[in-house]
Amino acid sequence: MDRGIPTEATLQDMRKDGVAYLVGTPRSLLGKIEKDLVGKPWEMVHEGMSVKLLEQEGELYVQARSSDRQKKENAMRRRKLKELVHGLNQLKRRRRISRDQLLRRVAVLKKEAGRVASFVKVQEPKANEAVNRQTFICTFDRAAWNKARERDGCYIIRAFVPWQDWPAGMAKQAGVLWEWYMQLVHVEESFKTLKSDLNLRPIHHQLEHRVEAHILVAFLGYCLTVTLRMKLRRAAPGLTPREVLKLMGAIQMVDVEIPTTDGRTLVLRRHTEPEDAQKIVLQKLNLNLPAQPPPRIRGGTAIMPEP
Asked: What does the alpha-carbon distance between residue 154 and residue 37 come to, in Å, rounded to a whole number?
């Protein structure tokens, strides 16, 4: 199984050799098989996530639709369209602008809008025409826009799984393939967690016991991250361990040292007060910050007592 996008020739060779695969595909493939998917029933794998299965020419296609992802992509699409339309309207209101200036500005607006630019058809003035509202016309393709919005939040999984590779007694189901694909996502996420969140960069050890110790520390750190993810899944599904660690990392433990008149130092170990967002996370996870310890006094060069 692979989350990459191999070539068509590679997939054909894998099918010929009876090798199973499960890959992501470009969204453009959805337009090619959309008609065949229309009559297929949706299967809900969990709240906000639905899938449907299409078997075609020995391959399996799974269309997955996420309501949260759809809302996010719809919002991004609307924002880019709003910026594009606003920029084009500003050009229309400009009284003095040459055709070359207009073309350059329109090109910049289209580049910034990306794929959203395809929904706005721009009629530019010809070489011998003046720039006005009769020669510079913009029209909105609402039908294509609505069709694209319906595809937001959807992606296609392509698979080839011989019957002997399926668990005994299990039928080919869209939900099963989607779960397998999510396992690949979690594996990739684990490597990202080890490299970024836990900051476990490669360290070239010389002794075997140090290599084993490094692996143990990395494994324990990842286990804690997975434990946090499971807690968040029940208490706050919208949060990820990465976001929580970043948010809670702002809470710091500090030592406040206050000199006294007799030459000694009053030491108060304190943690910063959590903000509203941090309080909500602590409440959701049913966690409490440790109590503020009583102040300590040290004199001269005495060592700070351990907490």
From this structure: 12
Mean per-residue pLDDT for 176-182?
84
- Would strands 21-24 and 154-160 be described as parallel, antiparallel, or unpaired? antiparallel
35: Cβ–Cβ under 8 A, 6 or more apart, which residues? none
By the 10 Å C-beta count (0-12 exposed, 13-18 middle, 19+ buried), 238 is classed as exposed
Angular region, 18: left φ>0, alpha ψ -120 to 50, beta rest: left
Q: Of the candidates 23, 54, 11, which has an alpha carbon nearest to the alpha carbon of residue 159?
A: 23
In the numeric block, which tokens belong to residue 213?
């110790």
Indicate yes or no: pTM above 0.85.
no
Distance from C-alpha of 229 to C-alpha of 216, rounded to nearest angstrom:
20
Residue 289, token pair as written in the block = 């910050």
What pLDDT does residue 168 have? 56
Which residue(s) pair with 28 in the sheet? none
CA distance 164 to 141: 48
The percent of residues in the chain predicted with pLDDT above 70, rounded, is 91
Q: In the chain, what are the domain boundaries? A: 8-68+150-184, 70-139, 201-247, 250-299
Unique residue bearing structure tokens 């759809």 = 70
| Structural contact between residues 157 and 26, judged by C-beta atoms closer than 8 angstroms | no
190, HSE (Cβ side, Cα atoms, 13 Å): 15
